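INTERNAL AUDIT FORM
Audit reference: QA-55
Scope: verify that the stored structure record matches its stored sequence.
Auditor: D.O.
Record contents follow.
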Amino acid sequence: MARKALLVGINDYKGISDLRGCINDVTNMRNILKTYLGFRNEEIRMLTDSRATKANILFRLNWLVRGAKAGDFIVFHFSGHGSQIRDRDGDELADQMDELICPYDMNWDNGFITDDDLNNIFSKLPQGVLLEVFLDSCHSGTGLRALESDLGRPPELGPEVQVQITSYRKDRFLPPPADIIARVEGEEEELRPMARFTDIARDSTHHILWAGCRSDQTSADAYINGSYNGAFTYYLCRHIRDANNSISRSELVRRVRQSLVHARFSQVPQLETEVTARQLRTFSLAERKSDGSLAARPRPATSAPRKKTTSTVPSSSPRMTTVKVAK
């Protein structure tokens, strides 16, 4: 069984507004993969800031799927800006909107990676390969106002403590320029439904998508407990650690949602997969049974988990990266 992971985090963009928590997101996820899944350094590729160009991301995505066989385990995590576009097919406008993720060298003349690009790459995977995709970005600019909730403190967080969340909160949506928006004006009802990254999970019961928010929301880049993070990735990794990665995907997404509500974030993370896979542990392998359902297989043997700490970023990594603050 082979394992591969590609982790992409972009704070310092070329020519568009910067973010602050994306590199901490991928170092956080890397620590999860090494601690709980036994990933080795050579099985993980990271692209950050100026190295996370469109060409480099696509090259590494193809590295992910190359030579994959049934039973292999693949992880893709992206933290950065997202957006949407009505693309062109030659001189003709496409008949639907596409969701996209923004590489370091993002531009509106095909300098982006769409849901179609990802689907075309991941469709190369043979049946039986487990693909788990995490997108801490957003693809709609219609973000909702912060929720006022009386759900109270999630019990999984333990006794009440002071959670340091400063006023810095920035969504990870990149608004299209006026000429791109003009491609849609007045024709919204004529377009087919938007092509979404959720199609990744519909291609195969072994393809699992985690999204930081609903399609009509924005994912937050925020300052939490002394460091900048994506709010979704922060609480996802926190609950994996707190549970020693021993809870189901459905329970994990429930805890992450409740923590975000308690911290007054409006985003609602999404888990796209079939019902049976929801009951398996995050990152757990699965195989097809004769009745067509999925059954858990034992996870690969790993070294004992490292002692848990309250930090969401590996202790060997800096707590905060140096970034330029967008104005």
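Auditor finding: record pair retrieved intact. The radius of gyration is 19 Å.
Action required: none
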